[in-house]
Design goal:
2 copies of one chain form a homodimer. Chain A contains 12 helices and 11 strands. The first copy, chain A, is an alpha/beta fold. Chain A has a domain at about 1-115 and about 285-315: Isopropylmalate Dehydrogenase, CATH 3.40.718. An 11-stranded mixed sheet of chain A has the order 3-2-1-4-11-10-5-6-9-7-8, with helices on both faces. In chain A, helix 6 crosses helix 7 and helix 6 (about 145-165) packs across helix 12. Chain A starts with a strand and ends with a helix. The interface between A and B is large, with 59 and 59 residues.
Amino acid sequence: MKIVLDAMGGDYAPDSIVKGALRALDELEDIEIILVGNENRIRGLFDNLPDRITIYHASQVVNMEDSPTASVRSKKDSSINVAVNLVKNKQADALITAGHTGAAVCSTTLNLGLLPGIDRPGIATVLPTLKGYSLLIDAGANIDPRPSHLLQYAIMGEVYSKYVLKKQQVKVGLLNIGEEESKGTDFLKSSHKLLSSSNLDFVGNLEGADVFSGICDVIICDGFVGNITLKVLEGFANSIAILIKKYLNKNLVSKLGGLLARNAFKNLYKEINPAEYGGALLLGVKGICIISHGSSKTKAIKNAIRVASESIKHDINKHILEELKLES
Amino acid sequence: MKIVLDAMGGDYAPDSIVKGALRALDELEDIEIILVGNENRIRGLFDNLPDRITIYHASQVVNMEDSPTASVRSKKDSSINVAVNLVKNKQADALITAGHTGAAVCSTTLNLGLLPGIDRPGIATVLPTLKGYSLLIDAGANIDPRPSHLLQYAIMGEVYSKYVLKKQQVKVGLLNIGEEESKGTDFLKSSHKLLSSSNLDFVGNLEGADVFSGICDVIICDGFVGNITLKVLEGFANSIAILIKKYLNKNLVSKLGGLLARNAFKNLYKEINPAEYGGALLLGVKGICIISHGSSKTKAIKNAIRVASESIKHDINKHILEELKLES
């Protein structure tokens, strides 16, 4: 398996991207890595890379200020474009980027194309819950979708849950402001109707308070609401560490308690932060593309590589195509 | 000050509503309470109510399945309608309901009317943050607003923060999926423009991860996104208790640590749960209306009564009208 990494994308690129790649090579025996980016800069930081890593030079980088669509055309030699084209030309099996999400969505959509039956790609993110993991889709690829896009997300999310997350029964819920099917905007009412008439195990509307409780395996929403939900959870997870410390330090007894329970807290912080999971899958494109958090460090990149290798192994797009045929 | 309570609204009505009223009377000397609802049922539960509580009979109750607009007309004698009319007829200074939010919004809008310059009411909720409190508006009154509605929410939120929450400088932020002003839907881009050209201290877009960090005093969003954000935070806050326990119980040392730090955790849970704050203000209507969480128990109702008494004292609507004049 060859996995290509956008070595220039993300807050800690290229340093953490390369370190993540090195860590992944230790853990996963059956992969090779292609780093795409400024070759001199990468070699300057890491002068002795193992044989299983190759560098593919790209002269440009998409910045956070760049327009997603324009950047695909104006920066043809950007690290993300070059990485996508390596997948397109079958020189790699999957790509990972922690750079500009919009640019990654545009570049993959335009260069790789969409699976037949899919009108828009969606970002599927694994969320920690009280009962394990749920999948939220869309986390930000499509902020103004139609109901039919949400149905496509639900089908792709179900397939991912079945084949990669190994869930036998996949319950699908629609994120809304109330449980009754009359709740929400016209867009949500139409989406509810469409999901109800599908072959999916659709359990109806789901409220914000249920996201973390894990009552659904797949949570469907538009990309705007999905992005806010995900980031609210991440912000809260990051804040909890600060708050717990603050409360424990209020007196000596609780401070001692905090010291004894130190490891428990460390493990807790890891479990509740969605950013720890390393990579969200961009579902719907002809190829495997992992969108990592901009703030990804070594471990998150290593996890993203693991997600990529699992998606390749389970041939996720083949199963999506089969499922789409059953639904149509 | 006379505060009217919808005694039939909420998951624990009328029991917790009446208990909350009794608790508030102990703490607040300058208030009287009117309970609106089924008199026999209330007297059956509490046979000896103090003089400062009166009961006003209402023969109907709005159920969660009722349509908000239809219920205002078809159930004229519902507890929420009767409570609103007591405010309209100056027999009370403020009203509180933990019942059907949509029905409360409709009944107050139709019966009390809106402040001149306000096109739609918005629910303003106090959120706990790392730096104290922020105000989120709208938390669910208006799920399909126009940019001008968001500007009105921002003005009302600023006034509330200044006069009730006693903040000297009020920073206003727009909840969006990125910091750049080019981010989000057309609705958000227009809202950003409108807020930028106002007299408010508008700091621009705010991401989901910043909600809990407290970098803004007033967080503006549409009612759909606001409701999801609030409920996601509540759900997470409720889950944290379960998760912390789970991790502490993994070995004896951390279990002991947890016992020592028990009080610290209790205080933490209280601080981080938005549901603890008792009442959100429905801003924009001609009158003072507090929307409480459906799951409100005694303490939340007591807190809602405190919020109502403070809003009456600070004459919030007078200040909103002054501020609207300055902006226009």
